[in-house]
Structures
1.
Amino acid sequence: MAAPHPVHADVDRTDDWWRSAAIYQVYVRSFADGDGDGAGDLAGVRARLPYLAELGIDAVWFNPWYLSPMADGGYDVADYRAVDPAFGTLAEAEKLISEARELGIRTIVDIVPNHVSDQHTWFRSALAAGPGSPERELFHFRPGRGERGELPPNNWPSQFAGETWTRVPDGEWYLHLFTPEQPDLNWDHPVVRQEHEDVLRFWFERGAAGVRIDSAALCAKAPGLPDADEDDTTLYVDRDELHDIYRAWRAVADEYGGVLIGELWVPDPDRFSRYLRSDELHTAFNFDFLARPWEAAELRASIDTTLAFHAPVGAPATWVLCNHDVTRTVSRYGRDDTGFDFAKKRFATPTDLSTGTRRARAAALLSLALPGSVYLFQGEELGLPEADIPLDRIHDPMHFRSGGVDPGRDGCRVPLPWAADAPYYGFGSAVDPWLPQPEGWAPYAADQQAADHGSMLNLYRRALRLRRAGPGFGDGPLRWLPAAPGVLAFSRGGGLICVVNLAEDPAELPGHTSVLLTSGALDDEGRLQPDTAAWLRA
Ligand code: NOJ
């Protein structure tokens, strides 16, 4: 093991902060532009750290900031030990990590083990070295099928629609579950395993408190890469071999008191919770909750299943309403179909933003009161809607690979509005930002909302402050309380009660001594209006 980096020295190894943390996701390219070139960067984040501290979050998860050609928003990493020059330098990342820590904010970095960029030295060397070379063994190179090898080696579907294999000039094909610019690594190879353990160490030694593991359920592939039966994903998703990989990662993380967070799209809750056994990952994103529609029975079922499957492995649950891959919450909750499904995303879906916003406010109080840790995606605290991106400005490969049917994920990745009256809403750019901001976003700007007591920003600030200081929040037990149909009511420790009204009529509040916070005004009779939540103290 290399000598510990000085920044690492102040990481608390015994603290289990992650069991209850509120974690803010920063998509660097769209957070704040420090050098005016149209894209967000580390200088922009550093300048806005006081905003994050005031918001009251415990940690920041940064989407990948490494050297990357940006074929998939940085999830095509060319060098894990370098920061992309568009974002800044490694020295700046180190400064950012320690400055954040001084403000009480921990840093979580994003590691992408399933694939690298086609510009990574490993892949370039593999291409140059040719068929049968040891360099090619780090990836999944295969001869094609058909008389002249003109057919792909197997029938696996891509995670992004479109082809899963690309043929190189010497006739071999390589596997990529995402874009051709993201060749999949061969996780049976010891060099691949060693390299990732070294990368974990590299970032823990620079003060990272945790690691988000991208596409964590995909790395292991069935030996021989056989054809899959229709709809059978077991040859490349959630394979048992993964658990050994993450046990080895856990041993590395434990050396540093670091935390591992899995991006696991594994629908079976039993299979999901296996990754959270005490010698594997600490937590994983709860996408079941994210995907559920705005209906009391659906959300309650998700909460119950989540808690039931986390309890036996002793892991805290997580709660996520949106991220850089999915439709923004206020838009989703304002549509006919309030659930989330990648396969169903379409252009111009009718959206009632006032209903969506009311529900998103209630959902914020719900998720912040549930047991475990909670994630919020930049701009969620501003109530940003999903933006319509003009066709000629779309970057996301998901749009192009869908044949233009899926609008892609850029609509939730629009540069943040910081100041209502400044050019580009104060994002910091001197030129048109990399994604256009919609007209009429001034009311969403952080400065405008800071001055408005009833804004989404002030709701989040008050809620996060209460959540930090008050008893009953974060990890711990939950008990359902009797409630009218369509109403969710539960108590936590310390007399904390959360009530959410998803019904069409006002709901009586359960017995309480004080109202801590509501997501919208109570009616004249002190009842909770539809699509509204309240925190009470009994
Ligand atoms: C999941 C990431 O969140 C997403 O943005 C990315 O496109 C894929 N993994 C591939 O890395």
2.
Amino acid sequence: MTPPTALTIAGSDSGGGAGIQADLRTFFAHGVHGLVALTAVTVQNSLGVQGFTEIPADVVTAQIKAVASDMGVNAAKTGMLATAEIIRAVAKTLDEVEAGPLVVDPVAASMTGHALLREDALEAIRTELFPRATLITPNLDEVGLLTGISVSDAASQRSAAEALLEFGSQWVLVKGGHMQGTAECVDLLSDGREFISLSGPRYETENTHGGGDTMASAITSSLAKGASVPDAVAAGKKFIERCVAEAYPLGAGVGPVSPFWVLD
Ligand code: PXL
């Protein structure tokens, strides 16, 4: 039997915790065949990102076209896109091919605070990619960069969701994991009509590297299998909760969320 396919358009993490490495194992864990358009090679370990080199934009485009034209893409997600030129190329190419629902994870910086985007690229994400997205999945740091809104409670989280929807995506998931001093991690999903609050436990761990990527690729996997956005997000939240609960130390800095529970 041929499984559903999902395409990740993202960067490589030499530490194996985030980026395409996280995406591919998350697709696998969902029984989804992973396809890749590599955008950048990062040099990093648990202590941080030492640097990155982007892939030429025409090579990113060619990777997307190669897999979409032959193998078929049931859903796609974007992670680290590195430059405005790559963002524009990805947006244009996704208009030209069949790639199913699109999840845009607006990756701007690593957990350790290192920039993963050149400076002019944030504007390109807002204007070129968000209008094409089925769902965008910013964390609170990215919400701040994208809207200027500092989310500190349910009311400001809702204002942020409304402001982000103005950029044109169908749905937004404002992830509350980075909110200070809350016992639960509350994420807010909205399409502008429905506001769905998803609450889950907060685990005490420093090891959350790759968490955002893993959640976005879990959601993309469910979309590739035909789930609705609210169902895919609810399942993605359950999936990432287990990954965070079993996150492990590796290296002297921030360890990765763990995919290994799926083997139990
Ligand atoms: O977690 C965001 C992210 C995405 N993609 C790559 C990364 C990181 C964080 O470090 O390295 C390649």
